[in-house]
Amino acid sequence: MRQMAFALLVLAATSTSVLAHSKPEQTTPANETTVATVKAIEMRFDDPMRVTAITLAGPDGEISIERETGMDAVTEFRALPPADLPNGAYRVDWRGLSSDGHPMQGTFGFTVAE
Ligand SMILES: [Cu+2]
């Protein structure tokens, strides 16, 4: 019985902290959209986020992107992909630390088609 109460407490604490955390409000390209070109990869957070890692995976595997935003906590994160991404499906995965120091992660995807 004590274990059950503890489990519920953990569950409640977890869901509260998830709700309290900043997820990207908007991304560029927007999630699940099709675009002709990608000039920048951007994420906007409602609370400052220190993005500690970000990867871009495309049809031929991982693609290196150039961070324009450093390791500071920001509400607008920006990175630059190589010019002329080939057509295909892309996925961005990121990890970060929210303003209260909790680890966060997220993902979004888009398609390049000309
Ligand atoms: Cu937190």
From TrEMBL:
Keywords: Copper, Signal. One of its GO terms (biological process) is response to copper ion. It holds the Pfam family CopC. Residues 1-20 form the signal peptide. InterPro entries: CopC_dom (IPR007348), Cu-Rt/internalin_Ig-like (IPR014755), Ig_E-set (IPR014756). The keyword Phosphoprotein does not apply. One of its GO terms (cellular component) is periplasmic space. The keyword Acetylation does not apply. GO terms for molecular function: copper ion binding. Residues 21-112 form the CopC domain. SUPFAM superfamilies: E set domains (SSF81296). This is Copper resistance protein CopC. It comes from Sulfitobacter geojensis.
